[in-house]
Amino acid sequence: MAKAHTLGLFDNFDEAAQVIETLKSSSIDGFSIDDVVLKSPIEHQELAESLGHRPVYVQLYTLIGAVLGAGLGFLFIASSQASFLLQYRGGKPVIPLPPNFVLTYEFFILCGVLMTVVGCFIAWKLPGNRSPLYNASVSEDKIGILVKAEPAAIQEVNAIFHRFHAAEVIGEQAA
């Protein structure tokens, strides 16, 4: 079944915290606390902790990029130097390690940064559509709680928003 969205805007931090705690303790059919997104102009660590841990995978992209960059960088450099095996080297090694470490380090940083950018685009779902409900006041002075749930559950969620004096509720759906 398609899910509907609703956004409750709050002026008061304590009211928003009470809404999240009430949603967390409620047993509304068709609603999960994992589908709640907090939108605010500043970070509210207490609210983020009450919503639970949300995994972030950008660091994994950085690690993969750095490891691949170092490995492939050294492989490219060493293979280009080893192609000159028939040339007279004058007692020097075919693949000199100290100068290669500098270039390997550069590949390490370059691929790590590029994969971090790719990971950010994937994690942020860019390019993509903006949130179905957006209000500019969330960027200014209000705390927004965006809930994605089934249409029957949206009515109960909106009732909780109104109970805790939401300044505005956007996207109210009738089942």
From TrEMBL:
Pfam (any one): ActD
InterPro entries: ActD
Keywords linked to the UniProt accession: Membrane, Transmembrane, Transmembrane helix
Membrane spanning stretches: 60-82, 102-124
Top-level taxon of origin: Bacteria
Protein name according to UniProt: Quinol:cytochrome c oxidoreductase membrane protein
